[in-house]
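Practice problem: predict the structure.
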Amino acid sequence: MKTRITEMFGIEYPIICGAMYLVGEPKLAAAISNAGGMGNLTAGNYKSGDELRNAIRETKKLTNKPFMVGITILPSFHITMDDHRRNLEICAEEGVAGIEVSGTPIDKLGMQYIDMLKKAGVKMFHKVGAVKHAQHAEDVGYDGIYAAGIEEGGHPLKDDVTTMVLTPKIAEKVKIPVVTVGGIADGKSMAAALALGAEGVMMATRFMATHECQIHDNIKQEIVKRQEYETTLICKSINLQGRAIKNKIVEEILEAEKRGASLTELAPLITGERCKVAWTTGDVDVAPMMMGQSIGRVYDIKSCKEVIEGMAKEAEEQIKKISKYF
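Answer:
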């Protein structure tokens, strides 16, 4: 496959892994990149600059191919704006291929960071849920856009626009490459994204159900079992909307929000430490596990190579199949 994304990074397939808290680690990132896609090392997993730098170097030992570093600039209990600035500096110093930025755009931390990353050859992609945010990213110098629809896991924009509408809207308004996010799990959704004007896809939930992903097998089996209607939006009341699998802790969060719970009251329910427990013990009810509606399209646990090559093959088949109509 050949798109501006494959050409920009020198990768085989325009399939990118999204940032995942405590999941986007060296082994998974390298496996995805070695399979011809684009792995993601998630900066929020690491408590210090040295830890992030070591993780980048460890990933480079596992693959000689490019990978992303995900930096989520949203309100956090333990990550400060200075931490984000430090992480951007480390990405530039270590010469990573690209960064995925969610939340606050880099220029709000200082335009000098845009200049620094450009000089280091680090490609910058901003994950957005609105046309105006995509245009802003292009104006300040980003290299690409992740068009993230409401279907995505994690923190979709509260505008609640679907991938089907958002992708072509953004692709028509910016000149830089657009990558579709939300509802992507297979070759059919990939073919659809390309038809909508995207030049690549990004997914995270699907990569959790792979052999290389370092989470408990109970969680992987839960992903395979769940359907597309078994996710919901939480934390709307504190302006930190997130899509998570329905479970006991999510029910508690939603009930607390109905009662008008404050951030202080919600904090113990939404802390990332709960995910650490879930990923290691396999307890599917202890944490608000951020996953997208694409969970309904995940039917098995495969290697990253099987997922990526299967997607590319299916996308090609789908494109050929519909071409007969014209």
